[in-house]
Known about the structure:
Blueprint: H1 10-23, H2 36-43, H3 47-59, E1 63-66, E2 72-75, H4 80-91, H5 98-119, H6 122-140, H7 146-159, H8 163-183, H9 187-205, H10 209-228
Amino acid sequence: MFLTTENNKLTAQIVTQVRDAILTGKLQPGHRLPSEKDLLVQFGVSKHTLREALRALESMGFIEIRQGAGGGAVICELDMDNTRDMIASFLYFKNVSVKNLCEVRKVFEPYLARLAAERLGTEDIEKLKSLNDAYRKSLKRKKPAINAEVSFHDLLAKASGNPVMVLILDFVNSLLTDIKQQMKPGLDFSEKVLAAHESVVAAIESRDGQAAAQDMFMHTVEVEAGLKDLPNYSKKYEELVC
């Protein structure tokens, strides 16, 4: 299955070959890689080089190395957490700012709200309402409800049926959540978020896509302004540490 590697950058070449075999469907989740002995012969490398490559593939989420009888390297389906971490590692060197993240939200979130008004079924609308109810109860206890807030946007993204949008919004909202946890906005900020979410749900339930999109756009604008108005907002948030 695999080709003998050249002497230059052996580990990277092994990683590339295995990754390509997974992405082209030659290896499926649940499949096992050949034994270490067979892989050493196929790649023509030392044990150290092979094991280094397998550790790299495991850290990237492509394989899981299992111990014991029947163990070995098993192909995994990439999950959202690993994918998010890889993107974050890349963007760490790109000086991503709060403004950058909010600009992405302004483009995607209103569109998702419009789609939700057109496509979302009764059951999912009730889930949105339940998330708002959980948010409201948390605020009555004087506690932030970050999980309910993020789940609200996640549900809208998943309802689109577009995995690219799901990935993008999951990543962006995850980073914004980290920022909020560091900055600790007050209950007044959270109350505005809840009011915006309720307005969006009302528009979705009324099947008014234009109103849902407009309300969501204003929500993203308000969140950005609210973060920048916080007393502990500093220049470090202009260049986000992923």
